[in-house]
Amino acid sequence: MASFGGEMRFTYNGAPLVLRAAIKTTPSNTEVEGIVNQDNSVSASHKPSGYGFEPTFEDAADVDWDAVMRNGPYNISCIEDHTGVVHTWTGAIFTGRPSVDRGTGEVTGIQGLARAYRKSRG
């Protein structure tokens, strides 16, 4: 039986950010589009896309979101304490536009894009 979820720790270049919700990962750096030819045969078009992730963070007084977005590339890790899985993104940048919900403290609108990704057991 597989296990998912539980406590997770997120760092970028060693600095922590608190995850508010689970993180979504894109563990492939290829986007494949299916093509149907006029004779009904199929082909595929492959496009490089980078490795990605989509987190939801908690806002904190000491986090300068402008600096986080403008700097990089970063070495990023997400450690799943409950499952023992470690996600590592190398040469990553943050993309998108952070949006802070002042009622809940959630920071959304941020994605990540990296040149390398690794998932392992810690």
Strand content: over 45%
Helix content: under 10%
Return the CATH topology: Elongation Factor Tu (Ef-tu), domain 3
Any idea what the radius of gyration is?
A: 17 Å
The secondary-structure element order is EEEEEEHEEEE
Helix-strand category = mainly beta
Number of strands: 10
Distance between the termini: 19 Å
Largest sheet: 8 strands, antiparallel
User: What's the CATH first level?
Assistant: Mainly Beta
Q: How many DSSP helices?
A: 1
Oligomer: single chain
Low-confidence stretches: none
What's the CATH architecture name? Answer: Beta Barrel
Organism: Chelatococcus composti
Pfam family, one: Tail_tube
Protein name: Phage tail protein
Explain what this protein looks like in three dimensions.
It is a single chain. The protein is mainly beta and 122 residues long. It has one domain (8-121): Elongation Factor Tu (Ef-tu), domain 3. It contains one helix and ten strands; from the N terminus they run E-E-E-E-E-E-H-E-E-E-E. Strands 1, 2, 3, 6, 7, 8, 9 and 10 form an eight-stranded antiparallel sheet that branches. Strands 4-5 form a two-stranded antiparallel ribbon. A hairpin with a 4-residue loop joins strand 7 (74-80) and strand 8. It is globular. The model has no long low-confidence stretch (mean pLDDT 95). It holds the Pfam family Tail_tube. InterPro entries: Phage_Mu_GpM_tail_tub. It comes from Chelatococcus composti.
